[in-house]
Amino acid sequence: MTSPYDPSLQFRDLDARIVVALERISESFRVMLWEAGKKHKLSPIQVQLLIFLNYHDRGHCTITCLSEEFAMSKPTISEVVKTLVKKKLIQKEPTSADSRSFYIKLTRQGKHMAGQLEHFSSPLHNLLAGHSTEEKSRMFDCLVKALTGLRKDGVIRRQRMCTTCTHYSPRQQSLYCEKLKKEIMNQEILLDCFEHDETAPA
Questions:
Q1: What pLDDT does 11 receive?
Q2: Which of 5, 162, 170, 183 falls 20 to 30 Å from 114 in CA-CA distance?
Q3: Number of neighbouring beta carbons within 10 Å of residue 77
């Protein structure tokens, strides 16, 4: 199979150009994360973790869940957590069920820091604002299909989106959420739903 990174293939193959474009966007996220965390001496994963903790309930904020969320090993996530505890940005909250396990939550200082960091992707957000709703809907539809496929292939380990949820009920031009009792158009599919109930990949 010819590599999409071969410029001669890119010249004649749209799929290859799209793969390379997505990689460049991924690289831009790394750059924006580094820039956001640099002045606070935080690594990209530390920035991501603080923002995630700021918007998710404690059921999602355990070492196991964070390991799946960021596709990292538990020891690696534990080291990140240990560092942020030392910086007084997060704290551990023991669970009532097991004294050895704990939830992870932001301190007051951590909440303030997350608020400063959470707009790191504004350059990309601002660029998208200049495109029509129709253009963005088509783009979003392609991205949802790509994410769904990557989840089925096991590349993405944790994804709280409609297409991997037991409440999902597909219809011709939309889907129906049995939990919310609501019809959702394709461009309204959620990628991070609080009501998500995981279904095993097909």
A1: 83
A2: 162
A3: 22
